[in-house]
Each structure stands twice: as C-alpha cells, then as structure tokens.
Specification:
This protein has four helices and ten strands. The protein is α+β, with helices and mostly antiparallel strands. The strands form three sheets. Strands 3-1-9-10 form a four-stranded antiparallel sheet, covered by helices on one side. A four-stranded antiparallel sheet has the order 2-7-6-5. It is globular and about 45 Å long.
Length: about 180
C-alpha cells in the first residue's frame, strides 16, 4: 500500500482552508477537506510487515500533546507546484517528533532525506496560479486559532479518480495515558 504518517488538523480548520481555496478556479486543484493534514513522513509503497514495523516505532515513541497554529499561505519557490499553510506554533515540536521517528523509520524503509519542513498542503497546480492563490488567501486568512495536536496516524493513500483518498489504518493518541 502507499502510505504516510500524519498529524491531524481539526475539521473546522480544514473546512475553512478548503473554503478559501476551492473558490479559486484557475490552474489549481484544491486538497479536499478530509485530506488536509500535516505530513510527518511519506512512506511510499510499504507492505503489511512494513506497516507493522512502523506501528511498533510509533507505539514506542514518546508522544506528548502540544499546540499548533497555521500561518500564511506559501509555495515552495517560483517553480513550486504545491501551495501550503506554514506552521507557526508547534513547528519546533513537529520537528522533534519527526526526528524521533525518522532515523528508526529509515532503517526499515528508504525515505526522503530533504530537510523536514512542517506544513499543510492546500492545493496543487501551476506555479503562477498557486502564487495568485496564496496572494488571495493571505488577504483574508490571518492564520488559524491555536489547536491541540493529540494524535498521530498512518494513512493509506489510494490514488485514482479526481482526488486521492486517505484512509486511517492506525492512530495513536498522545500522552502517557495512551501508552
């Protein structure tokens, strides 16, 4: 299966983001409300044994709730094909969480070795259209409220059709009471 590890965002914030992005019709493909999340690690194709190993790594990772907030819409430079919301509060905690898992995950699966930049993808498309989208969104979006990150999930990604479908195959709540 094609999979990734994600931290969820509250539904009302995902809906607000989708509403801002979906009205922009030219040259972009918005990320659907249910698919908006913070990617911790893209695993790519992984079999059931690999998923079991990833579950074990997550279960043995110390996870404490922390607060997050989302900032301005941006792109990955003038040639980027993804628009995203930057992380404001919680960026340090996301990086610590990423680093606590990445080395262990890399022992079971070849992973992307680029520097981890916590973000929330909101649309894909042409660089010019995405820059216009970001400019438009940033005129009305002042960032999200602060919210609590309290779980991490492994998501199965099913490609095909108009949009990918993400299905949670494992979830762990943060905090010692969920160990």
């Amino acid at each position: 299966m094609r999979a990734f590890i994600a931290v969820e965002i509250p539904e009302h914030i995902r809906s607000e983001i989708f509403s801002l992005v979906s009205g922009f019709q030219s040259g972009i493909k918005p990320i659907l409300t249910n698919n908006i999340h913070i990617t911790m690690e893209f695993l790519g194709e992984i079999d059931e044994n690999g998923i079991a190993e990833v579950v074990s790594i997550i279960e043995n990772t110390s996870l404490s709730p922390f607060t997050l907030s989302l900032g301005k819409a941006r792109t990955f430079g003038s040639s980027g094909s993804v628009a995203f919301m930057d992380i404001v509060d919680g960026k340090k905690e996301l990086k610590i969480l990423y680093e606590s898992m990445h080395g262990k995950l890399a022992k079971i699966k070849k992973l992307d070795e680029r520097e981890y930049l916590p973000h929330v993808s909101i649309a894909r498309g042409s660089p010019q259209a995405l820059q216009l989208l970001c400019d438009r969104v940033n005129k009305v979006w002042r960032g999200s409220e602060v919210f609590k990150a309290d779980s991490i999930a492994i998501k199965k990604s099913i490609l095909g059709g108009m949009h990918a479908e993400y299905i949670t195959v494992f979830e762990k709540r943060f905090g010692p009471e969920h160990a």
